[in-house]
């Protein structure tokens, strides 16, 4: 007989792989098994436009990583020093420590110039990605209930990204960024009553003061990124909490998500895409020089850079100021610079309208349901036209922000450009709205024809009596569903103004306004009726050409 013994349970567990033992240890303290079970198999739809949000996230991570590296070598001080570094053209030039340390990063720190340029390019791509991502969310109606709060988070990320970029490119204290800071100080001074106090606080005295680089540095690396990091986390949590939106298609409803699981499919694709984004940004930074401060020189209050332009995302605000007439009025002994203050108010109103739009549309439509299926932009012509009108206004003011460069590069009169922007600011969005709406209605008509008659095949057939027709291929059930699944809203009406007892009901002004706006959104001429089942059957039974 042979004696056999069974190893204690503890010894058998000790033979488990090291990774499993570590996971068991962590689960006993953090409960990661239940967390992973609940979230790692979460389904995400697969569409190329969803990568826009990933580009924003990955560029933000790249900004953080490169920013940490740059903070190790940057000196946020405006103390004046004499330069004796390796860049010969600047030898003996008086400059701030901030500018001198930026030169050292560019020419003496190993990889410093590449990291600087990756940081700057990633910032531009982050804001551009946010811009396009928000437009995708807007045009497809992804901001509707329950995602209004997430739209606000995304909007705040966009705005904070703009101001983080502004404080960032102001840090080197070069002549270009100093000109932009001077412009900003003038805008702050135009604010009635409190403008002077804000300027003195921000700059530590009369411009340029001695503290603004250090204060911008704290804002740039601590305050704004901290808020943005919290917003990014909150944004992602809400994306997980609310099911991901998806484009219309067979089997896709407001109660399910058709796609791939987060683990391993989506995570593998996302990880590869991160390195692709990082590689592209690094390649662009290695090839294309951006913000060459050594060719611009240090900031001096008595000098200004020719052709000074802000980064593109600030061109909207600068364009408004450049084309505004230089109006001033005296009020109670105070000079109000309306030529700067009015553009600031317009800029704030436009941003405010963007932030509140989900709530405005919900109030107009009266739709309080949850929406997880996206709209095709053509099926919401009024909303799509509003979005294109806003982009048109943005691009026109961007031309105003660079009016001097347009004038010199295309040999145009700067006054002609200014008047073009002034007129275009009001006329351009209206024209864009009308044209876009008509295009959307035309696309709706084409979809209706396609549903009824099928897709044009290019095959010409001659009938027995001599008539030539084009053979149409019938659409698949999947295509028919995609083209006909959208809802067609009816405008909200004021309702009867007299009750059943003949007593006249007082109609509130807000109720009348809502009815008028709803009629503008969904009234006659704003949507093409979908083909009915009877029309489709009549065509299919041979009463139409196929």
Give an overview in words.
- This protein has a domain at 41-303: Cytochrome Bc1 Complex, Chain C (Up-down Bundle), CATH 1.20.810.
- Helix 4 packs antiparallel against helix 6 (112-139), helix 6 (112-139) crosses helix 11 and helix 7 (148-170) runs antiparallel to helix 10.
- Helix content is 60%, strand content 6%.
- By secondary structure, it is mostly helical.
- It has helices at residues 9-14, 18-30, 32-39, 51-71, 97-107, 112-139, 148-170, 175-189, 195-203, 212-241, 262-287, 315-323, 338-365, 381-401, 403-410, 414-453, 477-484, 509-522, 533-543, and strands spanning 43-44, 80-82, 94-96, 260-261, 328-331, 334-337, 455-462, 468-473.
- It has 19 helices and eight strands.
- Strands 1-4 form a two-stranded antiparallel ribbon.
- The protein is globular, with a radius of gyration of 30 Å.
Give descriptors for this structure.
single chain, 546 residues, mainly alpha, Cytochrome Bc1 Complex, Chain C, two-stranded antiparallel sheet, two-stranded antiparallel ribbon, 8 strands, 60% helix, 6% strand
Question: Quick gist of this model?
Answer:
This protein is mainly α. The protein has helices at 9-14, 18-30, 32-39, 51-71, 97-107, 112-139, 148-170, 175-189, 195-203, 212-241, 262-287, 315-323, 338-365, 381-401, 403-410, 414-453, 477-484, 509-522, 533-543; strands at 43-44, 80-82, 94-96, 260-261, 328-331, 334-337, 455-462, 468-473.
Helix/strand layout:
Layout lengths: L8 H6 L3 H13 L1 H8 L3 E2 L6 H21 L8 E3 L11 E3 H11 L4 H28 L8 H23 L4 H15 L5 H9 L8 H30 L18 E2 H26 L27 H9 L4 E4 L2 E4 H28 L15 H21 L1 H8 L3 H40 L1 E8 L5 E6 L3 H8 L24 H14 L10 H11 L3
Antiparallel strand pairs: 1-4, 2-3, 5-6, 7-8
Helix pairs in contact: 4-6, 4-11, 5-6, 6-7, 6-11, 7-10, 7-13, 8-9, 12-13, 12-14, 14-16
